[in-house]
Amino acid sequence: MLSPFSSGRPGASAARVGAILALCLLSGCTSIRQWWHNGFKVGPNYGRPPAPVAEQWIDAADPGVQSQGADYSFWWTAFQDPLLDELVATACRQNLPLKVAGMRILEARARRGVAAGNLFPQKQQMTGQYTRNEFSDNAFPFGSFPFKKHYDDWITGFDAAWELDVWGQLRRGIEAADANLNAEIEGYDDVLVILQAEVAAAYVQMRTVEERLELARENLHLQSKTLRIVRDRFEQGIVSELDVRQAGAALNATESLIPTLEESRRKLQNALCTLMGMPPQELHLDQRGPQVIPEAPAEIVVGIPAELLRRRPDVRRAERQAAAQCAQIGITEAELYPHFAITGRIALNAENFSELYAWDSIAASVGPGFQWNILNYGRIRNNVRVQEARFQQAVLGYQDTVLKANREVEDAIVAFLREKVRREALTRSVAETEKATQIALIQYEQGIIDYQRVLDTQRALLLQQDSLAESRGKVAVNLIAVYKAIGGGWQMRLAAAGSQAVVAELPPVEEPRPIDEPPLPPLPAPSVPNAGPARPE
Prior knowledge:
With 537 residues, the protein is of the alpha+beta class.
């Protein structure tokens, strides 16, 4: 508790304050010079640490990669699937983890308000008390107690104490709260980016499974037709029973694929329901549009690696966490120096309640005071070292986050480009296998070839068609991974709810905010229009 100076002489009080400040100057000249240059705040001022980024992407020369800026606010509209747009919008409104992230921002905003309030008098209390007092005769050293032994004590008043932020401890606390608030905002954006990517990926995977399911049913129909032909030829004595058994085995093998694919479809639909904040249920998506895999555009626009520092929310969050930890160094270092405060009290004090509000019952006191932990320097200095080590950890964590972000983008780009090549090869393979299957079936009916050739071509057709559908889905999923890795989608938060005109005029992506200028954006998950034209940044 800060205690006031006991002397009633203003000159003596001022002299003591000056002596204490002089002692502080002598005890830490280097820190005091830093305190002076930092705007009367001890501890280091924060500056964004360097981060390793490549000059360009490895596949920048590929014709399918465009290294230029673009607006990624509604990247999923590139698939031109209105149902996908609707699912993403619903998830952004109703997803529960996203709402939790929004509540964390409200919590951080309130904590920032608490930190700012500490700049004002920290203690402001109304008090009131009544006591009945009696002194002991036996405790008095000179015989009978000479004064009144029994009396009442009524008191009510107002106490205040204001610690002056001489060393910037409270202002550093506001800096830390600002950075933590920004970090939570970036955390919200990170959840938003992940949510959009998960919804789009689950939708594409579901459409892929539906196409594979349809292909399996078509092949089942084809093999049923082949089985009838084989049975007819067996009954005519043209072929042996072996052909019938082989055709039946192939038919049953294809039929066994259908339950597995139906299970996968149901699980992906359940995942979509959970992402949209609703219990698992039948969405009836097959009744709301064609069951086709969304087609990915031929080119992707990824910008340059350095843009990850300002676009990826997880990178920006790691940088803000480092800023918050830097402020903790100054907060801890301020404990090395004395804390100055002004305390005051005004009260009404009387023995009888009827006299409590009389003018003569007023009592008051006011004066400066200080508190200095002069024998705790070993613990305080080591605590400063702890905060400095944590800051270095936060910086290294930020740099590691940047490296991982670069790797994720590179992995997603190469996966997208190579899967496109694989898809093209599979497309040609399917076309050739379909022709081969038709020829094999005709030649079998004519008795030119045995059934094994037909069986082999039909198996190859099923395998190639299934691989092609899976590859088409992977191309779209890999493109989604690219948009997620470059940090697209959170910019939709900056758009006004439901305004198509505003969507077309989104502000550019913000640079990391200075530690002393925290933004306070609106928080509820926005209502997103279905499809909007992309606008270059």
